[in-house]
Design brief:
By secondary structure, the chain is of the alpha/beta class. It is built from 8 helices and 7 strands. It has a 7-stranded parallel beta sheet, with helices on both faces. Helix 1 runs parallel beside helix 2 and helix 4 runs parallel beside helix 5. The longest helix has 29 residues. The chain is globular, with a radius of gyration of 17 Å. The relative contact order is 0.14.
């Protein structure tokens, strides 16, 4: 029987690329979305066209009740989640003195609270089966300050410590918990600012590889971390940024 993978925020961008890569690798893949069922279904269709098995599932991971319903549905239909990829995230740019409470809550709820409670639910069943893989899609800004989008960085720094805490606590149960820290990627989160040639040029000056990556540049690392070849990788943060963090 195929192992079951759940990718949050998988209707577009990095999440979609990860879901497609896991589907092609033979995992039964659940494609989580919050609002766009059409986008999620297109991801599932591409996985099926490639010979895989995939299903869309709606949940706002910033809401605890939605997370519980999502896992209940998956477990009822196919069984417990073997591989969880916490990818859902949002980024809103403004000076630190301007963030209103509702935007702070929105960013932290989706980026950190959602990842925590999805992990909590998955860890319970992974522990019983003595096997599991959790991959948290963080950011180079888990360690590298951004300026003008501090709440995003704070949420990703929290995700990095969550990764380490869960890896330390659950590694003895055959579960690995790791983080991937992407740099500049052409996703919907970044597309608008990268449309400014001056901004893109500034970003490229700081990347030794001299190009901005696409979402599929992240998905291969996720597939590796789910494999038995990566069974000794636990509590790690894999930086994929073309060398951006060297500056």
């Amino acid at each position: 029987m195929s192992k079951i993978a759940l990718v949050t925020g998988a209707g577009r961008g990095i999440g979609a690329a990860i879901a497609e890569a896991l589907g092609k690798a033979g995992f039964l893949t659940w494609v989580n979305y919050s609002k766009s069922s059409e986008a999620a279904e297109k991801v599932c269709a591409r996985i099926r066209e490639a010979g895989g098995n995939a299903y869309p599932i709606q949940a706002d991971v910033g809401k605890y009740s939605d997370i519980q319903k999502m896992f209940d549905e998956i477990e009822k239909k196919h069984g417990a989640v073997d591989i969880l990829v916490n990818n859902a995230g949002i980024e809103i740019r403004m000076p630190a003195t301007d963030y209103p409470e509702e935007i702070y809550d929105s960013i932290m709820n989706i980026n950190l609270k959602g990842a925590y409670f999805c992990s909590q639910r998955a860890l319970r069943t992974m522990k019983k089966r003595n096997w599991g893989r959790i991959i948290n899609i963080s950011s180079v800004h888990e360690e590298r300050p951004t300026g003008n989008r501090g709440i995003y960085s704070i949420s990703k720094a929290g995700m990095w410590m969550m990764t380490r805490e869960h890896a330390k606590e659950y590694g003895m149960f055959g579960i690995t918990v790791n983080s991937i820290a992407p740099g500049a990627i052409r996703t919907d989160l970044n597309r608008k600012v990268l449309e400014d040639p001056a901004y893109e040029e500034m970003v490229l000056r700081n990347i030794p590889a001299k190009f901005i990556a696409e979402p599929y540049d992240i998905s291969g690392a996720v597939v590796f971390l789910t494999s038995e070849e990566a069974r000794y990788v636990n509590g790690a943060s894999l930086t994929i940024d073309g060398g951006l963090s060297l500056n």
